[in-house]
Structures are given as C-alpha cells and as structure tokens.
Write a structure and sequence with these properties.
Layout: E1 33-42, E2 46-55, E3 72-84, E4 98-110, E5 112-113, E6 116-120, H1 121-130, H2 135-145, E7 147-159, E8 176-188, E9 192-208, H3 227-230, E10 240-256, E11 268-284, E12 290-301, H4 312-323, E13 327-340, E14 352-365, E15 376-391, H5 392-396, H6 400-403, H7 418-423, H8 439-448, E16 451-469, H9 487-490, H10 498-504, E17 518-535, E18 538-558, E19 563-576, H11 598-617, H12 619-623
Amino acid sequence: MIGVRNNSDNDQCFEIWANELRVKDIANSGGYAALANFQTQLADFGQVSMAGSVRTIGFGDVDKKLNQRSLNKTINFDIATNLELGKFFPEKLGVSLPLNVGYSENYIRPKFYPLNPDVELQQYLSELALAGISKKERDRVRKAAEDFSSLYSINLANIRLGKGGGKNHPWKLSNFNAGYSYQNNYRRNQQIEENFTKTTQVSLGYSYSPKVKPWKPFKRIKSKNLAIIRDFNINFLPSSFSVQTQFNRLYSEMQARNNNSFRQINPRFYDKNFTNVRNYNLNWQLTQALNVSYSAVANARIQEPFGKIETQEQRDSITREIFSFGQLADFSQNINASYKLPIDKIRFLNWISVTTSYNGSYKWTQAPPSFKEVGNTIQNSANYSIQPNFTFTQLYQKIPWLRDLNKKPRRKVRKPKRSEEKDGSDKDEEDDKPLKPNYFKIGVGNFISMFKNAGFNYSITEGTLLPGFRYTPDFFGQNAANASPGLRFILGLQEDELRYKLADLGALNTDERLNSQFSKNYSEQFSGNITVEPFKDFRIVFDMNKSSSVNSNSIFKFNGTNFEDQGFSENGQFNISGWFFRTHFVKDQDFGEQHPNAVFTQYENDRFVIAQRLMNADGRVGAKG
C-alpha cells in the first residue's frame, strides 16, 4: 500500500512511480519426496549399502506452513562398501586387507536464479534459449546456479601379512602393519567455481612382543622364609617394542567465481599441510617388581613448493623431503619407572606394601619459522613418588591373641582315664563350668586393633623451561654433535645452573629480541589417610594433606656482553591441613565497636615470624649484606 499526503494549504501537482510493483497469489503447487535404502551382505566377503533421496520444489512436511515449503530441488545418494580383500588370498598366508570405499553426491537446484532472485531459474534458462544462447552456455549457467558437493573416500586400515601364534620372531611378517586412506571433498556453487580438499594418510608400523620367561637363579630354594631371595628374577629382553611412522597430507584449492559483467582477476588459493608423525614405544619389565617404559613422539613438517605442483622438479623436491622425514617441528619423550619393594616376601611384613615411581619428561619445540633467531624451546620435568600402605587387619591375623580376641573362651575338657571311669570319680565336674571372659584383655585388644589400615603418598615434582636453545635433537632428544642439552636434562633431572652452563657452551642464541621467560618450578605434596574403628560398624577416616610449591621466572637473555636474568621473580604456595578443634570455639572479644578474635590476632602476628624465617632461609639476603 502506498499513501500520499499534502501537508500544505495549496494544491500540488505531482507524479508517483512504482517500479516492479506486482501483486500475485502464493504459489500453491505441490511437490514430492522419496527415499530409498539398500543393503546386502556378501557372505564373509563384506557388505554393500546404498541410500538415496529426492525432494522437489513445493514439498513440505505436514507440520509446515505454505510459505515454508521447499524452494529447492535436492537430490543426494550415498554408496558405501566394507570388503575384506584378504579372502582372495590363500588362508595359510594370513592376509588381512580390509577395504572401505564410499562415494556420495548432493545436488541443490534452486527455484530462483541466485543472481536475480526475482526470476525463476527455469524461466531464465528458457529466455536464454529464446534469445538464441547455445545449449552449452545454458548448461554452464544451470551448473553454476546449483550447489553441488561430493565426497569420495577409500580406506585400507590395518593391513597385515602372516598369521599370528607360534614363535614370535622379530622378522615375522605379522609384526608389520600398514594403512592407507584417501578422501576428496569437492564443492561448487554460484559463488565458488571450484573448491576441493584432498586428504591422504599413509602409515607403516612394526610391533614386537617376545615371549620370554624371566631368569630365576635361586628358584631351587624351597624355604618359604627365603622367598625374597627365591623369587628374584630378571628379564633380559623388553616386554614389547613398537614404532610407527605416519604421513598426513592435506591439499586444497579454491577458485572464486566471477559473477560480474566486467573483467576482474580472482586469484586461486592453495592450502597445504604435509606432516610426518613418528611414534616410539618400549616397555621393559626388568623384574616382576621393576617396570620401565619409554615413549617418544616426533612431529615433522614436509616442505612443499608454493602454488600448484606441476613440474617434475617440484615433485622431486617433495620426494626428497619425504625420504628425509621432513623438518622436525617438535619432539617429546616420557620415561616411566615403577618399583614395588619386596617387603611382602618377608613373612611377618607382608601386611606392608611400598611402591615407588619415577616419571621424567622432555620436550623440544621448534622456533617460529618466521623468527628463527630467537631459538628453540626446551623443557623437562621429573616426578618422584612413594606410596606406602599398611593393612593392619593382616597384621592382627599373625598375633594369636588378637586373632582369637572375639571368640568365646572354651575350657579344655580332659578325657577321663579308664580307672576313673570305673570308679565313677567326679573330679572333672568343675571343668564343665564356662570360663569367664578376660575383659581387660579384650579391652586392650580392641584398643590396639581399632587401627584398620593406613595409606600415604609423598611426591616431588620439579621442572624447567628454557627458551633460546640453538640446536636440533638427533637421537632421544639429544644433539649428538654438541652433546646438548645433556643426558641429565633429557631424562628429566634438574640442574640449578643449567642455563649458565648452556650459555657458556654456546648452546643459546644471543639475539637480544628474545622475550620468552625462563621458568623453574618445584613442588612437594604429602597426603595420607588412616582408618580407625573404635567399635564395631563405626569407622572414622582421618585425612591429612600438606603441599608447597615455588616458581621462579625471568627473561634469561644476552645483554650484549654476557647472559643475565632480567626481571627475576619468585612466588610460591603453602597448604596444610590440621586439627583446629581447640580453636574453633574461641569467642570474639568486645571492645566497643571492635570485636577482635585472639586466634586471628595470633595469625596476624605470625606473619612477621614466617617472613623472618623465609628471609633467614634465603641465601641471597645474606649475600647482599
């Protein structure tokens, strides 16, 4: 509706133009939709499944309004197969070759022409035909107006040769595995002329788990009292070893469509990401009580030439990068060791178990490719822990009077002699009287045995992060040519003066633009719990915790003359649990408007005492005089 109003007192003469003013009813033509599924099982060879659907313009669900009906014609189909190609080989070869292939397409043809939404696409194509436009050009317009996407994938996962079982030799084919996968995702529409992403993954792995019996030099000892010596054992070979290398390549191109009538340049965009990931794992149970494991991950980047790969020289450069496993981007490794003390082998101490563990980690991270002058970053950490556990109920079973504490006392009845039976003597009549329980003995026993179990955990964690490292690791995180950063550091062990040591060896960059912080941390944690049962079915658990941590940070860099710490700072935390029942009910004092509490006042005064202790414990304070 258009309204015109004259706000003046004089007559006016004017014209009104309304462009593209049309009034039409809502299109009430209906559509249809259908879907189909098909799935078949090819015996033990595999299975094939297909699905498809179509939805035309004007179709709508029963709960949709008239203006919510579909304005697009949508067609899609999907085919997927899951086949075991190993069935084509003799069974004795033990070939496992699982193949998964999938393909899908999706068409969305709009009702209205995307570049002129007021005109239907079919009507526009008809007008082009009347204007003498060739069929090839009309097909190009129709194809550009559609939103088309497709997905093609092929996957060969966990390819293996050879049967398992029997003796597992290192060269056995069943120890090797391989994998391959490829995926191509394609799309085009009115805005995108072409956009595809190709993802390729190739992997090759090896794993070996020998069946080795531990060597027990003292197994002939029969005495149970010498079990700690008899059960001594050593494994001379690792329990398992595995290594895997995996190449991942992503390649994508995108070309925007030129929908303008004038000539313009739309650049073609390329997206590439080619990486190599190598995994190493070793598990060695040296004895039944001592286990050591090692794991490492190396991530490398395969450098590709810029733009589209077209020449043989470009392909050769990629091949050389692949065989050199690329340029290392980051490397990390972990070493874990756990040992259970053989206390349980001692007959009277098997109610105690003590487990110790060590975890050391190391990580090397490449410098930013655009700013290599600042150097790489290395960091490590170490964790030491011990967990003793005491099961007092097992201890009480070893003490006869505690074990039989709750049993009813019984009098030993002496068998009468034959002569006494003949005489009918009544000397043992007193033996029939029940014994009175020893309440003192029971009370003392119950008091001692109310402790049921106890467990404790004490751990120390420390770590170092150092930027500006110059070298690249060769083996196990170590740069062999320069013996840096050192065996102790890659094992997770800490050195207070490590940064100065590496600076003297020339292992740190001297670029003064370095602004990453050096950090060092140290923390201790202690926790425990004790379970007490003062009387039957009433248990109390006492928990205790104590933790402290110290973190120091600085920018360790070259100032033009030597290396120094700039902006050094140190902070820490301390937490402890305690028994505060005695001070829970201390009342506040009343001094007019102030209501101080003696406990809080003492806490405020103790701050100065603690500060004095920390100052006296800091060697730097005394050095400054």
